From TrEMBL:
InterPro entries, alphabetized: DGF-1_b-sheet_dom
Residues in Dispersed gene family protein 1 beta-sheet domain copies: 3-133
Protein name, per record: Dispersed gene family protein 1 (DGF-1), putative
The organism of origin for this protein: Trypanosoma cruzi marinkellei
Origin superkingdom: Eukaryota
Pfam families xref list: DGF-1_beta-sheet
Length: 236
């Protein structure tokens, strides 16, 4: 990412009709981005050049890297008239490094399949990825992870206070690695009769003995696991 004394990007108090906010590749260091108070109605599929992405999405991240930066998506109300969209959609690799943060909070989504669909997620070096107090009227998952997932080097994945009629809070499609004093913080989520965690047959989980998992106050139909999460991990 380019050196920067500080870049501010704001998308606020906006009405969107079949539109998308897109961020691409490495953003400047010390960048502060906020997408707030957006009302979105989407009825047509969006075609993003040079990708195979053809999805209804409010925010799209294409191989985004945040370095000592923040991205906030807050108070977004979105409705898709064609089901199977992703509220937030990250293609390629989403990287948070150097104390960066990505917060999605107080958003509501209707007609979407996943609240946040991420292909590869890397959160490291004191960074935070958080979904807080969001709602989905229906759908498959709050967080859908397609490929690799890593929370490393004193970093945090936080899912707190989310609710919705979804099949599972988290879908893990591939490897999960949590190590080097990192934290999975899952508290007070309500997915009705859905599962808190669903893993595919290809999912492997590694949580080292310096890291922590907090799972309290969640209202779920099942854990989605045939055995305790930590017993599935290579360590922990």
């Amino acid at each position: 990412a380019a050196e920067s004394a500080g870049v501010l990007i704001r998308v606020s108090q906006t009405v969107m009709r079949s539109s998308v906010v897109v961020f691409v590749f490495a953003l400047p260091q010390h960048c502060d981005i906020a997408v707030t108070e957006v009302d979105a109605v989407q009825s047509s599929i969006l075609f993003w050049p040079d990708t195979v992405s053809k999805r209804l999405s409010v925010v799209m991240l294409d191989d985004v890297e945040l370095t000592a930066s923040s991205l906030l998506v807050s108070n977004v109300k979105a409705y898709a008239s064609r089901y199977r969209g992703f509220g937030l959609y990250s293609i390629g690799t989403l990287t948070l490094v150097g104390g960066s943060s990505l917060y999605v909070r107080y958003c509501s989504f209707g007609g979407y399949k996943h609240l946040f669909h991420v292909n590869v997620l890397s959160v490291r070096d004191h960074s935070v990825f958080a979904l807080l107090n969001n709602t989905m009227s229906s759908g498959t998952s709050l967080l859908y992870q397609c490929l690799e997932f890593g929370v490393l080097e004193h970093s945090v994945l936080r899912m707190v206070g989310n609710r919705g009629f979804v099949s599972n809070a988290i879908f893990a499609g591939d490897s999960w690695t949590v190590r080097e004093s990192s934290w999975l913080d899952w508290r007070d989520n309500d997915v009705g009769v859905g599962a808190i965690f669903h893993k595919s047959e290809y999912t492997s989980i590694l949580i080292d003995d310096s890291s922590v998992v907090t799972l309290t106050g969640c209202k779920v139909g099942s854990t989605g696991l045939s055995e305790p999460l930590l017993s599935l991990a290579d360590a922990g």
